[in-house]
């Protein structure tokens, strides 16, 4: 089963393709089209976002406008807050002397109504790189990404939707959890799932890995560290988030993903134990298109939009890799300026916060 239905080979049969060529010349209104995100993005924003909201990167036929989401790391002075009477996160009395904060959290089934409480100030170690972080109770890898039950939607049957959701999760894993990609390699498996007929996305991907820059940064979609600069502590990445879906334009299965990834890292030098955490939240919207209406390839999706907020990965550094700051600046610094934000707060969407007044970097309250 695949996003192109149960047809073998190409998702666009020869007779459909020939009809498309004829209809394109004759101007038939319902001929298959190359995927263009402009109408989809506008529709999505008008439906789901306040007026004026704009994706940090949304793909369109022209270079997209971007909204900065890079955060510096620092701890606010008022870390030692009193514990309130209500304890929805199950924190009271659950921490042990080693810094563990109770049993693992249940999967996130909907947007939370409050941020996780502040953990006791404990430094991470090589054995426990998530100590002192709410991510200590999160699941690892794809186990932290909630996948909903499948139902027939748009042009897809329940079985097809189930496979599309599984492939969407595979894309997230290949983009943000694959150890080879995290060590700086090209995310070939993830790219193979993207509709190759999206010319603007194809151009972006080519430029991002050839000459990365602000407008063509691979970090917009993929998590990567320069192995000569930083390396993961162990092979565990903590995750929390969910996948949702609905029927999109032209009968597409539109899938929305919202996931936060927490990466503990040390300097690349052997023997380094200066642990910091890079925290990345991604919102990716994609369409599994009907191949009779959109030019696509079997088993691939079209990107609708992708946004990212990143903490301690290199503020306004565009070399194609996360470049976390180590020492007090990266793990236990004090916020000295800029708007303070909590990278673990998932109560709003990426665009729903106040944002940075100058579109630049802000200061994270914890890591």
Spell out the blueprint of helices and strands.
Elements: H1 14-26, H2 37-48, E1 57-58, E2 70-73, E3 139-140, E4 145-146, H3 158-176, H4 179-182, H5 188-191, H6 199-210, E5 230-232, E6 238-247, E7 253-267, E8 276-288, E9 302-311, H7 328-331, E10 340-341, E11 362-364
Parallel strand pairs: 2-9, 2-11, 4-6, 10-11
Antiparallel strand pairs: 1-9, 3-6, 5-7, 6-7, 7-8, 8-9
Mean pLDDT: 78
Unreliable residue stretches: 1-10, 36-68, 72-100, 331-337, 354-358
N-to-C SSE string, H for helix and E for strand: HHEEEEHHHHEEEEEHEE
What characteristic shape results from the CA principal axes?
globular
* Structure annotation, total helices: 7
Number of strands: 11
Structural class: alpha/beta
Kindly give the count of domains.
1
* Range of strand content: 15-25%
Share of helical residues: 10-25%
Distance between the termini: 41 Å
How would you portray this structure in words?
This protein is an alpha/beta fold. The chain has one domain (14-84, 108-364). 19% of the residues lie in helices and 18% in strands. It contains seven helices and eleven strands. It has helices at residues 14-26, 37-48, 158-176, 179-182, 188-191, 199-210, 328-331, and strands at 57-58, 70-73, 139-140, 145-146, 230-232, 238-247, 253-267, 276-288, 302-311, 340-341, 362-364. Strands 1, 2, 3, 4, 5, 6, 7, 8, 9, 10 and 11 form an eleven-stranded mixed beta sheet that branches. Strand 7 (253-267) and strand 8 (276-288) form a beta hairpin. Mean pLDDT is 78; it is low at 1-10, 36-68, 72-100, 331-337 and 354-358.
């Amino acid at each position: 089963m695949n996003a192109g239905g149960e047809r073998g080979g190409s998702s666009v049969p020869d007779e459909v393709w020939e009809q498309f060529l004829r209809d394109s010349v004759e101007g038939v209104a319902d001929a298959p089209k190359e995927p263009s995100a402009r109408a989809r993005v506008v529709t999505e924003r008008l439906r789901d976002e306040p007026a004026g909201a704009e994706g940090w990167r949304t793909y369109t036929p022209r270079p997209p406008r971007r909204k900065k989401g890079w955060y510096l790391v620092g701890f606010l002075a008022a870390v030692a807050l009193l514990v309130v009477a209500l304890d929805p996160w199950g924190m009271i009395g659950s921490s042990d002397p080693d810094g563990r904060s109770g049993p693992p959290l249940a999967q996130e089934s909907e947007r939370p109504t409050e941020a996780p409480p502040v953990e006791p100030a404990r430094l991470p170690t090589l054995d426990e790189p998530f100590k002192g972080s709410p991510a200590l109770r999160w699941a690892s890898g794809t186990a932290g990404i909630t996948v909903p039950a499948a139902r027939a939607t748009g042009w897809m049957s329940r079985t097809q939707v189930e496979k599309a959701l599984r492939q969407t999760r595979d894309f997230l894993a290949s983009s943000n959890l694959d150890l080879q990609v995290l060590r700086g390699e090209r995310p070939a498996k993830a790219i193979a799932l993207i509709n190759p007929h999206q010319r603007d996305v194809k151009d972006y991907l080519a430029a991002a890995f050839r000459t990365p820059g602000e407008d063509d940064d691979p970090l917009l979609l993929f998590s990567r560290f320069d192995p000569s600069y930083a390396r993961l502590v162990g092979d565990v990445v903590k995750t929390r988030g969910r996948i949702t879906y609905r029927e999109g334009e032209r009968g597409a299965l539109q899938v929305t993903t919202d996931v936060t990834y927490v990466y503990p890292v040390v300097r690349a030098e052997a023997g380094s134990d200066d642990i910091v955490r890079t925290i990345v939240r991604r919102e990716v919207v994609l369409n599994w298109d009907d191949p009779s209406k959109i030019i696509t390839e079997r088993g691939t999706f079209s990107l609708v939009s992708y946004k990212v907020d990143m903490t301690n990965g290199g503020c306004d550094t565009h070399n194609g890799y996360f470049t976390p700051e180590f020492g007090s600046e990266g793990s236990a610094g004090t916020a000295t300026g800029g708007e303070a934000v909590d990278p673990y707060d998932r109560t709003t969407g990426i665009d729903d916060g106040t944002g940075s007044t100058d579109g630049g970097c802000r200061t994270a309250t914890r890591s």
